[in-house]
Amino acid sequence: MHASKTTYYLHRSGKGFTPLGLRPWMVQTVWFILITLTISSAGMSVFLWSETYDFTTLATQTMLERKVLAEQTLTANHLKQRIGDVQNEIQRVKRFNTKLANNLNVDAEAVIRGTAMGSIGMPTVPADTVAYPTADPFSRRVRDFLDSLSDDIHIQEIRQQRLVSIIQDKKHEFDVRPSIWPALGRITSDFGVRRSPFSRRYDFHNGIDIKLQRGTPVKATAPGIVIHSGFMHGYGQFILIQHENGIKTAYGHLKKTLVKEGETVKRGQVIAESGNTGRSTGPHLHYEVRVADAPVDPMRFIMD
């Protein structure tokens, strides 16, 4: 027996109602299709929402990680600069300590070993209590570097403490050494081999040249007795001072000398005015230090 039909009437403009007969299975099929499409559409919406949420979350995490990375990079660059500054400061202290040791006639390394002074021992360097990830190579390198830096700082500190003690024991010897600048200016020619400004050939420069304006005051760098004051071939107006321990200092190309031979001078006393006399290419002071009449680098003695 055939299932009964269900009649639906469709309204058509200008034509009235048109009957449409549908069997039950047709209606059920239409409803099944509609429900299936609705469920599929809802599932697709949930899937798209989930993917969009995951993408938004990932984008947010990526943005945060980039921000953290940028901050870490900035911190690392700042740390690198600070470490460089500390290294430069340590090198400056090392140079100062070496000059101080030279002025005291002691071996700089002997100061560290303790053989230059009694029985002052090395202090114990405190252990690094900061925890670093042992599996991180960068952290290990940073820790090793900071440990080395800490050791170096303590070594330089001990060196200075010992040198201060030596200074107290050798105060007079230190006071009579030429350890100050004769005048402040830019060094235009160092001690040692250089290209001659006259012949353009290499020769040995037995002092340092300090660029100065004419008339700049020139000071004695240590107490002593003036053994020459006046003209000297090549040097122009020239002063030579005898100090203790076989040390002499020389000042050349002067405009005017202000002390006489045989006069006793003090450290820091103005003895002349700088100039451009003698064999010179421009206003400057030629300054020498001689030990047992042999020229040595004045920078070994100057404490700046």
Note down, in words, how this protein is organized.
- By secondary structure, this protein is an alpha+beta fold.
- It has helices spanning 24-103, 108-113, 137-169, 171-175, and strands at residues 6-12, 16-22, 186-189, 192-195, 202-205, 208-211, 217-219, 224-232, 236-242, 247-257, 264-265, 270-274, 284-291, 294-296.
- Strands 3, 6, 7, 8, 9, 10, 11, 12, 13 and 14 form a ten-stranded antiparallel β-sheet that branches. A two-stranded antiparallel sheet has the order 1-2.
Name a few traits of the molecule:
single chain, 304 residues, alpha+beta, 10-stranded antiparallel beta sheet, two-stranded antiparallel sheet, 14 strands, 41% helix
Topology, pairings included?
Layout: E1 6-12, E2 16-22, H1 24-103, H2 108-113, H3 137-169, H4 171-175, E3 186-189, E4 192-195, E5 202-205, E6 208-211, E7 217-219, E8 224-232, E9 236-242, E10 247-257, E11 264-265, E12 270-274, E13 284-291, E14 294-296
Antiparallel strand pairs: 1-2, 3-6, 4-5, 6-13, 7-12, 8-9, 8-11, 9-10, 10-12, 10-13, 13-14
Helix pairs in contact: 1-3
